[in-house]
Amino acid sequence: MAPQEVIDSHIHLWPEATSNEESHAWMTPPGMPLAKPHLLEDYCQASKRGVAQDPDLDVKGVVYIETDVRYDPPNGDIATWAKGPLDEILFLRDIVEGRYGARDSSMLLGLVPWAPIDQPTAVLDEYLLLAKDMAGPQVWPRVKGFRFLLQAIEDRATFEKLVFSSTFVANLKLLGKRGFSFDVGVDQHSSGIWQLEAMATAMEMAHEGVPETKRVRFVINHLCKPDFSERGPEFDRWCNARSI
């Protein structure tokens, strides 16, 4: 029987130039094991070891998810304050256009870059145009959606003020209108189940009054990082919120 073909739907990569705390706040020294280049060559070596243990699987491609690159406080020229995420798109362009080899180019099937979903819709719209220009005609069709991590907003009032705002909801609707998805990155275990519950409400708001064909699709990252240590009220609330 032929091996089952698999698409890995959530991977992260970064080059030598951004393998540091200056580019990624979470690459904290000393001894941060991820503060080194992670390229598709490394991924392929690791996945081959996994396939060796299960020869019935064959990884045919991957979907790249943005890596929470640093950016400056939004102010003025987007190309300036969002340079980090835009440079990330240029890195992906290098891969797709073959600068890391034909295999890597063909494996990178989908891209989910960062986008300023928390900013006014006019800013998001301008950013999408700039991102499209940075990506180029060969790369842009592989962009399937965008992510803006919410898990670090640990103050409940601040979190809910953002995700329930008319701007945030309008931005989600804009992504849906353009045919893009939105990756939901919240953390029930570290920040609280309320993050997931609030985002579930925001998701409903983003679909309200929108034709089904234009509704933004949501991709739940890491199952919203639930606490599986024991069955209890928090687990039940996670199940309820996840099913919305």
UniProtKB/TrEMBL annotation:
InterPro entries attached to this UniProt entry: Metal_Hydrolase (IPR032466), Metallo-dep_Lactonases (IPR052350)
The organism's place on the tree of life at top rank: Eukaryota
Protein name as annotated: Amidohydrolase-related domain-containing protein
Gene3D superfamilies xrefs: Metal-dependent hydrolases
